[in-house]
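Support request, priority: normal
Reporter: lab tech (M.K.)
Component: structure prediction queue

Hi team, I submitted a job for Protein COFACTOR ASSEMBLY OF COMPLEX C SUBUNIT B CCB4, chloroplastic from Urochloa decumbens yesterday, and the status page still shows it as pending. I've pasted the exact input below so you can check whether something in the sequence is tripping the parser. The sequence length should be 294 residues. Please let me know if I need to resubmit or if it's stuck on your end.
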Amino acid sequence: MELSRSVISAPLPQPTLRPAPAPRLGRRLPFGAFSPPQPLSNVREHGCCISRALRPRQDWVEGWVRSNDTLVRSVPILVGGASLVAVLLNRAVSGIAAVADASSSQSRADILTLALSVTDILAGLVWLSIRPKSISPVVPRGIECKRVGPGVSNSALHELLWAWDSLTTATCCKSLVAVYGGNCVLQIGVAAGSPEDGNALTVDAQKFIQGSLYKSAMESKKQSYLANLALYPGRSELPFLPANTQALILQPIGDKGIAVVGGDTIRGFTSIDQAWIAMIADKLDATLSKSFNS
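Reply from support: The job had stalled in the queue. We restarted it manually and it finished. Here are the results:
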């Protein structure tokens, strides 16, 4: 037995569409207000204003100074030299005696001008001799490796690999070592080569835990950022990292471990990177604690 259902359809009244008003420049919506999308005609009509508002503001003075760095550093020398020549010409053309007379106001003014000119010339010479050192990434000298410690579950390993992929994509990280529960649970990236067999040097977790870097980081329970690793004598406690590692972050993972993040650029980790690495460490702590407790 088949049942049939009849549906009576009637045309529904169409709502009246009102054209959206054109956006008013200089007006700000209150906090929390939602602005509906504008029709394509309005966007095209006012496209120049919208694109101008979204375009980042560029400081043309700063750009010109950067592109003409040598010329800008030479400006004090040019100004000082021109002032010095002008004073000497004025002294010669005006008919004033070449000998400085302390009682003459012109002589006193010329002496002050000469002193300022010499100061400008010396300042220009200092500017030309002292230049900021350009910082560029280096190629880590080592061997690519990927070692997973015993007792790491599949979910924890997936979490560790996700953290590694995220760090290498968004930061200058080139090496990552995670020590948790007294064992090295992950060593990935570029590692120092062993002088014996040429393979990647294995992390001695127990020796690393006894070092001052590990103890200071775990006692403070705060992230330790070594922006220029070459200036710190404690780098001898990290033989498993490439010799030319430029920057280092020691991030505690809860109360049982620490993450060693090595970078290829001096001061390459920004404040946002440091805060993000701290959040990743909290996530790893929750995952690794479940993995080792289960």
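Residues 252 and 258 are 4 Å apart (CA to CA). The mean pLDDT is 80. Let us know if anything else looks off. Ticket resolved.
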